[in-house]
């Protein structure tokens, strides 16, 4: 009787172990069947573009061009450098929270925050070394025919843009970042484009209280200009005297002074400048389609 009981217990233990092994195998199969959220597992260009703003080939090209693999390895993170870059672009493009990204990438939300801040710093240090301001001959070569006939000396078209930020704790910093135009706290930068629309100049960001004129002078874009160059801008850039010192010209829409309305020549000139400036506004809008910029940017990033 004792022998039968022992055999029954042994058989029961064996069944328990077998069931446990089956459960472990099922869990392993499920784990293997669930694809990791990495670039290689994005199935097509449509999904990759929705996630990052680039096609699969475009993502690979921009990652190779930036050459940040070694820089990203210095962080000693558990993810591959290419996965860190992927995470960065997904957050920029989608604007989703760190909590949601932590689920996708199977890391904690605090780790997502550390990754994003680290990658932002690495990319800033890398990109600020790029010289994207083209030679005068390159600008002329790329000009549309009609634009060349009317504005052949135009070197760059500039405008400023602002990004809302979270309200700083310090009253002094609140005042410095307070934007007159946006009625909130912002950071402000200047963008320049070539006549065909390609971006040729990007400034760092400054506190939102800075004027367009101050920002232009601070960034020394004029150091890149050559005699007889023309810069097209908005009405906020009233620095003709600075341009005269370097034999260049600033063109912006004229103001109504003592007149009730513009004369015909001024209307035509204003219309031409406004039409040209549409291109720089379009370039700015291409930056702001990244949903990360739809919410106030953390002030401490």
UniProtKB/TrEMBL annotation:
Any one Gene Ontology molecular-function term assigned to this protein's record: metal ion binding
Residues of the Transposase Helix-turn-helix domain: 83-128
This protein's UniProt keywords: Metal-binding
Keyword Metal-binding belongs to the record: yes
Cofactor(s) it depends on: a divalent metal cation
Domain annotation DDE Tnp4: ranges: 158-299
Protein's recorded name: DDE Tnp4 domain-containing protein
